[in-house]
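As a warm-up, study this chain.
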Amino acid sequence: MTAVKADGTAAKDIASYFIDLTTDGRVTSKVWSRTITNAKYLLSCGYTKDEIINVIDYLLNIKHVNMFSLGYLNSCIGNALKEIKRLEDKEKTEQVKKELTSSNVLHQIEVTDDNESKERNREKLSRLGVQPRFGEELTFDLFEGQ
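Now compare it with the structure written out below.
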């Protein structure tokens, strides 16, 4: 496996983003260099800057994990990305469900007249091309004479 060369500016951006979220901004040079090293390692493993930032946001804001080091991401980034994808898919399906229910409500019209119901059913049959089971309707009533 060949390692991807890490982008130094992306690593610096990730490190500063992480430090801004987890500290009050005052860090030692040792913590700063270790954070940049961890960010470079994640980038060299093939993760993108956006993926790493999304995982940081997910862990801090949604899961409420108290992270003190970016090295924590080395062990959980794969699972966190799967969970983020699952949450995004769930949100998309809920949005589609809402759109479908709102469009179905618009198409549902209450039938107030029996003739209106007959016309709607005739219209449906003509669209589907379905013929009556016994051919054409008879013009006389069989039970009329009894």
